[in-house]
Each structure stands twice: as C-alpha cells, then as structure tokens.
Amino acid sequence: AGPSVQITIPPGGSYDFSIGNFSAFPDHERIYGANGLSHGFEFDGKVYLPIDDNVTEPPRYVAVHSNHLFFACGSSIIHSALGNPFNFEVVNGAGEIGTGGVITGLLQMTGNQGTAALAVFARNSTWVLYGTSAQDWKFVTLNVGIGAWDHTVQNLFDAFALDDRGVTMMQQTLKYGNFDSTTITHNIQRFIDLQRGKVTASSLNRQNNQYRAFFNDGYGLYCTSTPDGFAGNA
Description:
1 helix
C-alpha cells in the first residue's frame, strides 16, 4: 500500500521460538519467533516476515497452539484468527486475554480427548488455557505462588520450569484434563537461592532425559529423569 521499507532486525533481545504448520502440506512448517524488541515474525529458512500483531508492546514469547499463533505481550496473551497467523483482527476471531502478571513463558501441554491446553507462566503464578478457539476458551488459574523465571519453561515428557522454589514438574492427573505440580529439587534449594535472577536460558537433552538451565555466572543445572527418580548436577 506504500513505498517499500527495508526490513531490519534490532540488535539484542532474547529470542523465543515455536514451530508450526498452518497449511495442509507437510513441507510448510515455519518458525515463529518473538524477541521482546520488535514485531513477532515468521521464518521459513529463507524469508524473514514480520507479523503485524496490532499491539504496541513487542511480544516476548510465542506459541503455536490449537491452529492459532499466540504471543505474550507484557501481562496479556494475544492470539491470531483460527488458521491464519497473520490476522490479528478481533472480527476475524483473534483476541486478547489478560493475566494480571507479567508473562514469563508459554508452553503447549498435553490436554485431553476434547481440547488442548496452553500453560501460561508468570513469576509467581501459572494458568492454563483450555479450548480450541475464541468460541470456547477457558482460562483457568492452576497455581498461585508457583510460576517460572523467564526462559525456563520446557516440555520434556511433562512440563518443567524453574522458579524461586526450584525446578517444578507439571504432570497431567487422572482428574479430567487437569495438572498437578511437584518441585523436584528440594535437596539443592541453597543453590537455587544463589542463582535467583541469573538465569539466561534453558534447554532439553531428550536423549539423556535431561532438563537444563543456564546462568550468567557460568553455572548450569541439569535434572535427569531416571527409573529411580530424578538426579541433578550443578
């Protein structure tokens, strides 16, 4: 609709990614990302495409969930129209959900037979979004007092996150479509306390069943799932 403008990527930022496919073709997977400094984007390996998400605060986290594209902006999550990651118009089915806490992570979870689940983390709270579209979203408080530090949520076989209480594991329960949380690092709480505010990133090593968190002082935390429980190294 106007003159061409050079696409630029601002320096810095901390990137969050989610892989998704909004087409019917298996070779149309794309990477969706957010960096906290500019618009979210789509990248197919060659083309970097900023997404006009109709928000003034740049998104920090991203998730492809239930055939929608979700961004976390401050204390709100916004989602695209169904099946269209570039359309954030409310009249087309896009929307916004406020949480009341600055969001520190989004994580797609195993739901139940009828609906998927998206975990939404803040520093001291956790919520779960159930449903398939704006027609039936149910945003439920899971935990008050348990949340996640920035960039620490991962899905190994269950959801893992790191906060002031240590590494927390969220497991699906026999209660229909619900989850329970358990802290698995009580024995190294002193180390967790010393690392508060230092975390920079997290990752998984699926081959070794490991959740890993990394800190800006050179330390790392590895939690390994074994047949006898969890073992940890710092």
